[in-house]
Write a structure and sequence with these properties.
This protein has about 400 residues and is α+β, with helices and mostly antiparallel strands. The chain is built from 13 helices and 11 strands. The chain has 3 domains: about 120 residues, GIY-YIG endonuclease (3-Layer(aba) Sandwich), CATH 3.40.1440.10; about 160 residues, no CATH class; about 100 residues, no CATH class.
């Protein structure tokens, strides 16, 4: 049965939070053979930016991608040279393909990221050779904060950074960070007792593991530290996550060199592996910290179809989106919004983690790879002088 005829199939991608205009139409083709799918793509798919989704025989969305030329990208899946690769195996599983055009490559990039987060298509997150699942490095979990990994940023955390790639590598990094900052790594089921907490009876609180004796944990489960002492370590951990310090790397470097001098080569090897993992984390944190400090502006992106868009970039994140005003009347109507955007950028309280915190890595990578695009940025107070030419395709 053709998947397009299945009543269970629900086409469409849903609401686009980065589209300030009416919803863009979604087109779909379906068939039981690769030749049928390819022929329909040739007939109906345009060569413009957009996102696409692959659906299996049950109508489930199994993969989401983006391209600055939808037709070229989709046809590449049918190439003979691609049969043994990911694309060839993916198209063998697909029975329908849907796409949604976007006004620009940047818009398609944001939409793809949002759709992957919303639907978690299985071919995006598993079963794809050499693909690494994104994870977020988090600091939190009361009453004694710890480093941990999460596939999506939790709502209640003291600090979150990412996404990072490579679950195994990040697992080593989390284990190392908890030890370096002497934070606990036990489960939430563990009972915690800080030194200043009073008790009716004198109780000998025993630690839940050996890390207290090894000096790699302050022991919040055994009344071995006060809440203030533990909080000081959490503050130091936050400084590392903000990219403000590289102390953990220096400590591991010294530990590795000391073990090597003492001919403890196994310990030196473990320290080296941990150091490599933390170096990756620190490089990414430094990049994200630079984006947070540097990227605070309105980014004007022209659309191939006249749908020009302004993105408010705050602390490196996409914070708000608006259609580029065309004409003086449209600009006058947008003035209250521009005033609100100006207040957002000037706020000393807000430091990112707005409505779309997951866009930080995307924005940082985009401007690192497309430095010339920074010429399209301006402050809200400059919009009065620039809106007329920023609304036109460069």
């Amino acid at each position: 049965m053709d998947v397009l005829d299945s009543k269970q199939t629900q086409f469409g991608f849903g609401v686009d939070p980065f589209n300030p205009r009416p919803a863009r139409p979604v087109e779909a083709v379906g068939g039981d053979s690769k030749d049928s799918l390819r022929r329909q793509i040739v007939e109906s798919c345009p060569r413009v930016p957009g996102v696409y989704g692959m659906l299996d025989r049950t109508g489930d969305l199994i993969y989401v991608g983006k391209s600055k030329s939808l037709r070229s990208r989709l046809l590449s899946y049918f190439a003979a040279s691609n049969e043994e690769e990911k694309g060839g195996r993916l198209i063998e599983s697909a029975r329908a393909i849907q796409w949604e055009t976007q006004p620009s490559e940047f818009a398609a990039l944001l939409r793809e990221q949002q759709l992957i987060r919303q639907f978690s298509p299985r071919w995006n997150v598993q079963g794809v050779p050499k693909r690494q699942r994104p994870v977020y490095l988090c600091l939190g979990r009361a009453p004694a904060a710890q480093f941990f990994l999460a596939p999506k940023p939790p709502k209640e955390c003291q600090a979150i950074q990412g996404p990072f790639f490579g679950a195994k590598r990040m697992g080593v990094a989390v284990d190392t960070l908890n030890k370096v900052f002497q934070l606990r790594d036990c489960s939430q089921k563990q009972t915690f007792q800080f030194a200043e907490q009073l008790s009716l009876f004198e109780i000998d609180h025993r630690p839940g593991c050996l890390r207290l004796e090894l000096g790699t944990c302050l022991g919040p489960c055994a009344a071995a530290c006060t809440q203030k002492e533990y909080a000081n370590q959490v503050d130091a951990a936050q400084r590392f996550l903000s990219g403000a310090t590289d102390e953990p790397l220096l400590e591991l470097q010294q530990r590795m060199e000391s073990a090597s001098r003492d001919q403890q080569y196994e310990l030196a090897g473990k320290a080296y592996q941990s150091l490599r993992c933390l170096q990756y984390v620190h490089r990414k944190l430094t990049m994200l910290a630079t984006a947070r400090r540097s990227y605070n502006f309105v980014y004007a992106v022209p659309g191939y179809d006249g749908c020009h868009t302004w993105y408010l970039i705050h602390c490196g994140e996409v914070s708000a989106v608006a259609a580029t005003p065309v004409g003086r009347d449209a600009y006058r109507q947008m003035k209250p919004m521009l005033s609100a955007w100006k207040a957002t950028l000037e706020s000393s309280v807000q430091r990112g983690h707005g409505p779309f915190p997951y866009t930080l890595g995307t924005v940082a990578s985009w401007f690192r790879q497309n430095r010339a695009e920074l010429k399209r940025s301006f402050s809200p107070s400059q919009a009065g002088r620039k809106y007329h030419r920023r609304s036109m395709v460069a």
